[in-house]
């Protein structure tokens, strides 16, 4: 997970390809509101490019490793607001599946609460 998270933070496609299984599957949910792949993407190269596009951490964002639906996962936030949440299935040391939620309607529970 640390290798995947660091590759995502940097948007490093080669490092992502190394972290993903050759037949890795990426499934996205943009809810028709946020641009995302329609259907699923399979294969290390295509999957790595998609993950780099969706989960890279440009200035002003933070990518953290967290538990997502009982799995290892990644959360990308801009300030207090979550912009992407990914559940990750590992197959040994490589990632076999990522489920990436980008749909703002499904991310509200992932926003950080400001202290009162």
Textual characterization of the structure:
It is a single chain. This protein is an alpha+beta fold and 116 residues long. Helix content is 24%, strand content 41%. Strands 2-1-6-5-4-3 form a six-stranded mixed sheet. It starts with a helix and ends in a 15-residue tail after the last strand.
Features:
116 residues; alpha+beta; globular
Task: Please sum up the structure shown.
The chain is of the alpha+beta class and 116 residues long.
Report, as a whole number of angstroms, the end-to-end distance.
33 Å
- Compressed to H and E, one letter per element, the order equals HHEEHEEEE
Radius of gyration: 13 Å
Helix fraction bin: 10-25%
Largest sheet: 6 strands, mixed
Would you report the number of β strands?
6
Number of helices: 3
| Coarse morphology | globular
Which range does the strand content fall in? 35-45%
- Unreliable spans are none
**What is the structural class?**
alpha+beta
Mean pLDDT comes to 90
Strand order of the largest sheet: 2-1-6-5-4-3
Show the helix and strand layout.
Layout: H1 2-10, H2 13-19, E1 20-29, E2 40-42, H3 44-55, E3 61-68, E4 71-78, E5 81-91, E6 94-101
Parallel strand pairs: 1-6
Antiparallel strand pairs: 1-2, 3-4, 4-5, 5-6
Helix pairs in contact: 1-2, 2-3
């Amino acid at each position: 997970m640390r290798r995947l998270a660091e590759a995502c933070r940097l948007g490093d496609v080669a490092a992502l390809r190394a972290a993903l299984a050759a037949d890795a599957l990426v499934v996205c949910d943009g809810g028709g509101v946020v641009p995302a792949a329609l259907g699923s993407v399979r294969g290390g190269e295509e999957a790595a490019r998609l993950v780099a596009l969706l989960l890279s951490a440009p200035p002003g964002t933070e990518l953290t490793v967290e538990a997502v639906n009982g799995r290892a996962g990644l959360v990308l936030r801009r300030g207090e607001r979550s912009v992407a949440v990914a559940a990750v299935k590992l197959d040994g040391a490589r990632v076999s599946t990522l489920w990436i939620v980008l749909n703002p309607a499904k991310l509200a529970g992932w926003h950080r609460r400001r202290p009162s």
